[in-house]
Design goal:
about 110 residues
Length: about 110
């Protein structure tokens, strides 16, 4: 079994990361903004993942948005910048947000 837990907090960690309750061979992938939460419950290895730079965030957002015809390349910069800012440089958030934008009609 693969169990993915996103952004867990201290009060959730012990209950959610009960490895003994899982079937043999199961894998848990847990994320938290609080590194000590993962270390306290014995998660190993703990990998620090950096957020994307504003430039890399824009490139990832536009890549997914253009591929799914969600926004043309010259879309209003303010809207894209706001969406990227809300995602905080988190790759999965950027991909989901860009993919869920309303479809655009391309002219020309």
């Amino acid at each position: 079994m693969l169990l993915v837990l996103d952004d867990i907090e201290a009060d959730q960690a012990e209950a959610l990361l009960d490895v003994e309750a899982l079937a043999p061979g199961s894998v848990i992938i847990a994320t938290s903004r609080l590194r000590d939460v993962l270390e306290e419950v014995g998660c190993a290895p703990v990998v620090l993942v950096e957020t994307l730079s504003p430039r890399a965030s824009r490139e990832l957002f536009m890549h997914h948005a253009e591929r799914k015809q969600r926004v043309p390349a010259v879309v209003g910069s303010a809207l894209v910048t706001e969406a990227i800012s809300i995602c905080g440089g988190l790759p999965l958030s950027l991909e989901v947000r860009s993919s869920s934008s309303p479809r655009c009609q391309f002219i020309g």
